[in-house]
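Q: Predict the bound structure with nicotinamide-adenine-dinucleotide.
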Amino acid sequence: MIILLTGGAGFIGSHLAEKLLTEGHSVVCLDNLDAYYDPAIKRKNLAEARQNSRYTFVEGDIRDGALVGSLFAAYPFDAVIHLAARAGVRPSVQDPALYFDVNVQGTLTLLQAMQTAGVRKMVFASSSSVYGDSAVVPFSEREACDRPLSPYAASKRAAELLCHTFHHLYGFDIFCLRFFTVYGPRQRPEMAISQFTDQILHGKPIPVFGDGSTSRDYTFVEDIVKGIMQSLYSVKGYEVLNIGGSDPISLSGLISTLEKAVGKSALLNHLPMQPGDVQRTFADISKARTLIGYEPTVSVQEGVRRFVEWYCGEARPQTVN
Ligand code: NAD
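A: Predicted complex:
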């Protein structure tokens, strides 16, 4: 297949690009290397894939309709995997317009270009944040998800709805995958596991928002990539699927797991909960199991161990002051 992969220079996208190439596909990656975090990290993420002759990197913006249109004119794409986005819950509270521009307008630009070109297969990266503080646990795709707690969550839910509209109007096949906190090598530097590892290693206090009882369903990046590949091979109709580890751990539990992996104790700085944060995330993955055969295989203990091993081997610039 020839795949248009948006956001392929990022954390998840760069792993996915390598997997697509390994499985014999051709990849055109569209990414504007935005400055949400250091673009040098993204250039490094791209290095391996760029050595493959079936890989093309295009530095550009998904909101640039002319550029996106020219890509569809130049390549006979079989499908689009759309990961490009402004990620991050807390920064979206500060700049909601930017999040809607990239995550909603950008998605619409892509869908319209697909419609013009007659390409009708998409796998879209949505987020567990759309569940807000759902009272139904584990989170099921049957929930209405109409109470998002942050502009980021609202933008992802809005993009899911647009995808449904294109399915309804034009017969697009689209799977919207709700990823549950993804971690692993190349993880975005502002995410908790990256920050905590850095703070433990350097003896700096970890800011613990709330009493440590909030919990997250962490998903190792390898399992996410598997879920995306399985979706690519079976996408049909319009479906929303949870792709998670389905084994949540509390914030305190995560910090102890990291302490063991790093081999050092953490210093803790207790602070109030942050606006936009949810109490817990927990994926019901029964639909993904049935529909695409998705099964996560990497436990948090194993995944954190592999993350810390990678982190300590990286000569990456420190990001925490
Ligand atoms: P990331 O920031 O590492 O990757 C996103 C990529 O999109 C970046 O390389 C960025 O440069 C690119 N991008 C941003 N705006 C763009 C634009 N306007 N045009 C072109 N490219 C643009 O993030 P990630 O963690 O790899 O996330 C990938 C996707 O998965 C995102 O859609 C994110 O919302 C979603 N997601 C991630 C997580 C997680 O825990 N990492 C959880 C749920 C959903």
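A: Residues 317-321 have pLDDT under 50 and may be disordered.
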